[in-house]
Amino acid sequence: MERVFTPLDCLLPAGNLKFCLLILNQPFDRGHFHCLWSKAALRACADGGANHLYHITEGSQDSFLPDYISGDFDSIQPEVKAYYKAKGCELIETMDQDFTDFTKCLQILQKKIEEKGLQIDLIVTLGGLGGRFDQTMASVETLFHATNITPFPVIVIQESSLIYLLQPGKHKLQVNTGLEGSWCGLIPIGSSCDSVTTTGLRWNLANQVLKFGTLVSTSNTYDNSGTVTIKTDKPLLWTMAIKL
Amino acid sequence: MLLVLLWRRPLVGRSAICARISRWAARSYGACLYAAGLPPARRFLPDYISGDFDSIQPEVKAYYKAKGCELIETMDQDFTDFTKCLQILQKKIEEKGLQIDLIVTLGGLGGRFDQTMASVETLFHATNITPFPVIVIQESSLIYLLQPGKHKLQVNTGLEGSWCGLIPIGSSCDSVTTTGLRWNLANQVLKFGTLVSTSNTYDNSGTVTIKTDKPLLWTMAIKL
C-alpha cells in the first residue's frame, strides 16, 4: 500500500488537508504561523512555545488563543502563563521527565482529537529544528515515538526546513505546490536502511543502502515530475526546503 | 593544539587568527569581514578556500585570490564541501608536518536541516580522512562523534553550558555506560524510538566518561 502525501499542502491557503497545529519552544516564521494558525482544527503549545505565540501575536493575543498549553512549565514565562490562564486556555501540567514536552503534547493532542471526533489528515509542528542541537535531535526522537501515539503523519517545520519520518514501505510525495524550495534529502537517522529506491529526484536511489558513514542523501533536488516516490525497508527521514 | 580560529561574527569580542577556514566559513564569515571593511592590521586571510565555488560570492573570491589565498576547486559531487575541505586540510597538515591535537569546524549546525545532517555525515567519514578528532561548533552547540570504546571528556573549562546529550544517530548502540552526567547510563541501549539522551546535564565532577560499543554523537552547550 502506497502512502500518498503532499507535505506542503498545509501552507497553501487553499490546501485540502485538515490538520492540528502544535507550537514548540523555538522562534518561528511569521508567514508560516499565520497560514497554519488560520487553518488548524486544534492549536496547542508545548511549554515555552506559548512564549513565542504570545510575542508573535503582540497586540492581538486574544485573537490567537491556543486550545491548550501543556508541559512541565519550566520554560513558559509567568506573565504569559497568567495571560492565557485568564483567557480560559487549558493548562495541562505534564511532569513525566522520561518524555519531552513535544512528545507529551502530542499524546494529549491525540486524546483530544479522539474525544472531539475530529477528522484530520496530519499534525503540523512549528519549531523544533533550530537552536540547540540536542533539541533538534529530540524532535526527531518524538517523530519515532509518534507512530505509537497517533495514526496521523506528523511533520515538523521551522524556517525553511521540513522533516517527516517515512515508515517502512512505499510513499508518494506530491511536491508540486509551488512552495517547495530547491533542496531535499533522505536521512537514515537511527539506523541504516538496506534498501531504498526513489523516483522523482535529481539523484535517485536504486535499491541502495543509506547509512551514516556510507551514503546519506543531502543537497538533493527534484526532476520536473512534481512527484517523489520512496520505497524503504526501515524508517527514513525525509527533509525538504520550504520557500520563505 | 592548532590555533584556530574561533572566528565569530565580527561583533563578538573574542577573536583569534584564522589559520584554517572552510569554504563554508569563508562564505559566511569572509563575506561578513570583507563587508565590514576591517583595517589591514586586522584582516583575516585563510590559508586556502576550497569547494565547487557555487556559493562563494564573486567579489569575495576575487578579494581573497588577489590577496594570495590558495583557491582549490573540488568538483567531486559525491562528497560535500566540508568533507573535501577536510581531505585537503589533512594533506596540508602532513605536508607541513604540523603537530596538532584536533580540527575545529565553525558552522554546520544551523539553517538547512539537510546540511546539518551532512555535517554529521562528514564526521563519520572523518575517521577515514584524519586521525585527529573533529568537532563542529555553531552558536551554542557543539557536536563530536565518539568512536567505539572509552572516552573521558573534561567539562570543567567554565565554558560549558547547561545541557548535553548522547545521540545514536547512525545506528543504535547496544551498550552505553556513562559517569559524570545528571542522568547516567548503565550498559543501556541508545536508539531512536527507544531512548536518546537529550537535555542531559552534568554532576559536579567536571568529568564525563562514556563507554560505547558503536559510534555515538556527543553534543554539548557552549556558553555564549
From TrEMBL, chain A:
SMART domains: TPK_B1_binding. Pathway: Cofactor biosynthesis; thiamine diphosphate biosynthesis; thiamine diphosphate from thiamine: step 1/1. Keywords: ATP-binding, Kinase, Nucleotide-binding, Transferase. Catalyzes the phosphorylation of thiamine to thiamine pyrophosphate (TPP) utilizing UTP and therefore links the biosynthesis of TPP to pyrimidines metabolism. By producing thiamine pyrophosphate, a cofactor of the mitochondrial pyruvate dehydrogenase indirectly regulates pyruvate oxidation and lipogenesis. Although it can also catalyze thiamine phosphorylation using ATP and CTP in vitro, it does so with significantly lower efficiency and without physiological relevance evidence. Signal peptide: none annotated. Residues 169-236 form the Thiamin pyrophosphokinase thiamin-binding domain. SUPFAM superfamilies: Thiamin pyrophosphokinase, catalytic domain, Thiamin pyrophosphokinase, substrate-binding domain. This is Thiamine pyrophosphokinase. One of its GO terms (molecular function) is thiamine diphosphokinase activity. It catalyses: thiamine + UTP = thiamine diphosphate + UMP + H(+). Homodimer. It comes from the Eukaryota. Its EC number is 2.7.6.2. It is an enzyme of class 2 (transferase). It holds the Pfam family TPK_catalytic. GO terms for biological process: thiamine diphosphate biosynthetic process; thiamine metabolic process. Belongs to the thiamine pyrophosphokinase family. GO terms for cellular component: cytosol.
